Amino acid sequence: DPVIFRYLFEAELRPRLQYGVARGIIVDVGSVPKQAVPYDILSEATFVQIGFGTLFPGLNGAALADLPRDDLGRVDTANARRNAPALGERATRNFLLRDVYAVPMADLTQRQGLVAYLLQRHYAREVLPESLDRFLVDEVGTQGQLGVDIFALLRQSKLFFHWLQEHWNDYVRAGEQRVLRESAVPFAAPPIRAYLDTLFREGQLERTRSVEGELPGWMRAGVLLPGDEPEQEFRTALHALDGAWPASNAPSREWLAFAWRWAGARVRLATLGADAHAHMADLRQVQEALEEAFRIWLAAHYRLLPTEAVTTIPIMVHYIAAVLHRALDRSERVALVVVDGLALDHWLAIRGQIMPPDCVVKEAACFAWVPTLTTISRQAIFAGRPPASFPDSWNTTDREATHWRRLGSDWGLQPAAVQFHRLPLALLPGADDLSGLPLVNDPRLRLLGLVLSDVDHLTHSAVLGLPEMQRNVQDWASRGRLRDLLAGLAERGFTVYLTADHGSVEAVGAGAPQEGVLVEQRAQRARIYSDASFAEAVLAVTPHALRWPSVGLPRDLHVLVVKGHAAFAPSGEEVVAHGGIAVEEVIVPFVRIGRQR
Predict the structure, then answer these.
(1) What would the pLDDT profile of 79-93 be if each residue is shown by its tens digit?
(2) Which of 104 and 202 is assigned the larger pLDDT?
(3) What share of the chain is helix, strand, coil (3-state, %, to 5)?
(4) How sure is the predictor about 143, in pLDDT bands with cuts at 50, 70 and 90?
(5) H or E stretch including 5?
(6) Beta bridge partners of 367
(7) In 151-219, which ranges are E strands?
(8) Topology of the domain comprising 304-503+584-595
(9) Is 123 helix (H, G, I), strand (E, B) or coil?
(10) Angle between helices 230-241 and 190-202 (to 10 degrees)
(11) Regarding beta strands 208-209 and 566-567, do their DSSP bridges make them parallel or antiparallel, or are they unpaired?
């Protein structure tokens, strides 16, 4: 966008060049003609054209084209070790699978090796380009080995774990009858057993109820016997996560994967009912160390997140628009449902209640904008741009519809093809008519944007922390309106993308600064100021606050966030809030829901 580019260049980059802060600036024009760069800037620049052939000599460019950008470093390292002639497309794909993604190709021709690879891949939430997965299936001839579509198991984590759960249930029932017959899944094989304990501890798989106490010892982790205590299950799951978070130099995908595991432990705690509060101290102890590790990682890597390439999964919420654009290019009708404040643990708690029948679900996660406030992060979703692109409306949500319609226009859609609605789900009728959404049955409609505000309202009314919040969200989902909405959209041919602008976390008040009119926006986990001196003055007298770099924000905004699980609230007051940089606030669900073809 030439307007945004000019704004960023003059506001951020030119001063660095003039005052010697930067020795040079690199502008990546991508596939856009270089003439799109303003002439005065281009005339002072050196133009360099770089392609896959330049960066990765000897590898086929077509095979590299859809790799995630953050995987290219691994390609470079592996290619530097290669002493072979130039490779064609097929040989390059084999090289990528074997030497970059460490896929044990020879093992995949056997059931044990194939299941072990699926376990390793989905536990790490590793996503390979679709073209590589299709090539993998064709190359090793895995179809029919497990009696199910292997390509679908590769691409859909939820489908894989559902399939695995069904086979485990059958395996346990056969064991009760003293008949451990051969299963499609060789559970007793060491490479597979190595994953089972962890999957059951962390809740990826549910333990199967059994009355038989004489099953083999290695099966015990996946069997629920009479007298087993849910509290012990929670403590075991929490212990497995303690200290197991990614390192300070880990790639972003490792934190996205860990966030799902952490969310699973939070859901497990909430299911303890009246006993949940007794174990909150255990959770908080691990949580404090986790959030400090995440703060260190985020401070070092957050500036780089907007530069990561967009594939089928957006790394940040403003890139969701690019994913929708690609779906429109495939002639799909697209509906974006933004559930304000829906955290990962909320999604895990309700997904079983809201999924329409006969739909394929693909789960992922992405990073919200910091501060994790609705006016910042949700507006970025509908603008399809960083918050720096809306300096005049960062503190309001009134421009979301305008942003959304502008996106549709930029993509060549007529006004009748684009709709935006913001409303509580309670105002929507059932799936039969969806009359709360005017013109939803209009065949011209191709791009629908919806904001559901119910969960955020529940967040700000919760006073008893995590257990109450989980219970409230589940009660809300159990009414069936979200399920009806998703089913109604799917029935009308929409591919639905469900996401959130931020999550939430339980926090304890450590005192609220007395700023008066000095603050532009106040929240319980963040403060925004238009003057750096105001922010510094508050920081000096607020020990539980820290300065957050205004990456991607309008240039005159200065942000304070709270440390750990403190809140800008009266001392000792317990709240559920957002705005800060906790894992639960920053990493949000991104879910694709489509009809089964």
Answers:
(1) 999 887 899 999 999
(2) 104
(3) 50, 15, 35
(4) low
(5) helix 2-8
(6) 316, 587
(7) 208-209
(8) Alkaline Phosphatase, subunit A (3.40.720)
(9) helix
(10) 110
(11) unpaired
